[in-house]
Amino acid sequence: MLRHCLAAAIAFAIALPVAAIAADQPAAHTPTPKELLAKSQPQEWRTPDPQNLLIMTLPKGQVLIELAPDFTPLHVANIRTLVREHYFDGLAIVRVQDNFVTQWGDPEDDDNGDKSKLKPLGSAKAKLPPEYTRPFDAKLPFTRLPDGDVYAPEVGFSQGFPVGRDKAHGQEWLTHCYGMVGVGRDADPETGSGTGLYVVIGQAPRGLDRNLAVVGRVLQGMEYLSGLPRGTGPLGFYDKPEQRVGISAIQLASELPPEQRPKIEVLRTDSATFTALIEAKRNRRDDFYRNPAGKIDLCSINIPVREAKAQP
Amino acid sequence: MLRHCLAAAIAFAIALPVAAIAADQPAAHTPTPKELLAKSQPQEWRTPDPQNLLIMTLPKGQVLIELAPDFTPLHVANIRTLVREHYFDGLAIVRVQDNFVTQWGDPEDDDNGDKSKLKPLGSAKAKLPPEYTRPFDAKLPFTRLPDGDVYAPEVGFSQGFPVGRDKAHGQEWLTHCYGMVGVGRDADPETGSGTGLYVVIGQAPRGLDRNLAVVGRVLQGMEYLSGLPRGTGPLGFYDKPEQRVGISAIQLASELPPEQRPKIEVLRTDSATFTALIEAKRNRRDDFYRNPAGKIDLCSINIPVREAKAQP
């Protein structure tokens, strides 16, 4: 039963029309994600720019992170420099705070660390100006969600990332949804550099939006960051060195020979199939879901990623 | 730096007034949670009813779950029966799906399980009517949040649980926030019994609201459910028996001698201090937070739990 049970809630069940409880819900069945993806067109998928694709190698597997240079260009450029110069190789995951973030960087870069042992930055910058929002640009693609948001006047997706917009104040920004990657900093807003990065592993901490530089999103391997024992020190830091998870390397796909780059494709967030997936999730009605929400929130939408088909 | 960094985002920093970007934000500093809790009154804390307190013993620690009989009375009663008759003792966590749920129950209760080996239910019922919503009751306490919600007409807290309300349709229900516990079922709405339970470990899957019976909330030990390796089978099921996490026992606190019951207190969600915590989180402004959200969503609010002071 268990596998049916809740499992059915996200399985691709045969959709049946059922009696509606809320009168404003459509009675027809909704297509499943599997059905919608099967009908997607090749041009609806994109290969991430290898200049924007980080490959993080952990003991149990690889994490792929897509960078968002249109939103945080200075931070992304600095992270590329750090990565090219192998800054992260040999560093570690140092913090896993439940329902908040997993964070990695230099273990010595910590209140209890020995600052004399800090890994040198190389040619990367030690401080950057804040890039917490960017000027609103009507030319950036935007797939707006119809159901509103508690925090931002408008929310939707741009170039594969969840975005909040405030046209009245001329700003837009990446939001702290599950799997989004940001840059740690001190209290001074100009102290972030990209040497310490975090990823959201719980309920979206949207209060961080517009207070930190968000640089990208995990495309694959999120389970290697989220499924770790929580740190038992203050704020979820691992209080014993042996609890840390070593990072063999973080590489840029563009630095690898083409045949060694990850072969993945991401569904375009300005595609018809993505819009159809959003609609199907808003009004999901099938054998299991008797009371479709009729709504969807920004951080509950998954962006499909698939293995690229072999080139002919 | 790391410990400051993002760590400061939730640390109890000295609050400083800073220039407001959004004109509607108050310029004064906000009190920290630590400051607010230090001023709380003893009568603002409650000891969970031992009839509603489950103690789940896992290899790495204990999980405390508070049941919500005012919302799902039949399911809660059945779970109490299962627990009193030691149904869960020796069963296991069978599924950890990233950004969704951790689920436990009888490993044989699975598409691949041997149904002849199913643990007998004892005097518990095998099926229950759906309790996905309950009739709206103005007498239940309700601390309403001021910033709206994507899914429900009204949201807030009642008796320590996050709640959605739809007065127009005369319904209220527990919402699927992080740490909420629900009852798995088959597609048929009358197939849930409480033998298979799940807890939310990611972004709140609010589309499940009003489709499943939510029976309670994890008060303590959430990290033992969320910080597990993700299952690699379909839907996050552990595909090898050795991956499962054994449950030594689930007990009801009321079945234990008083001196062996967990000594914890929960901040009342109808207390002045809880309201002050919500306000401080909505408009957090300190040395780190330069752009307070001015808003808060239901599932981003933590309900404080503390060790009870020793009785004199």
From TrEMBL, chains A, B:
Q: Which UniProt keywords apply?
A: Isomerase, Rotamase, Signal
Hey, what's the signal peptide range on this chain? 1-22
Entry GO MF terms: peptidyl-prolyl cis-trans isomerase activity
Q: Which Pfam families match?
A: Pro_isomerase (PF00160)
Q: Where is the PPIase cyclophilin-type domain?
A: 59-252
User: Which SUPFAM superfamilies does the entry mention?
Assistant: Cyclophilin-like (SSF50891)
Say if the entry is tagged with keyword Ubl conjugation.
no
As recorded in UniProt, its EC number(s) are 5.2.1.8
PANTHER family in the cross-refs? PEPTIDYL-PROLYL CIS-TRANS ISOMERASE CYP38, CHLOROPLASTIC
Q: What is this protein called?
A: peptidylprolyl isomerase
Originating species = Dyella jiangningensis
Q: What is the lineage of its organism?
A: Bacteria, Pseudomonadati, Pseudomonadota, Gammaproteobacteria, Lysobacterales
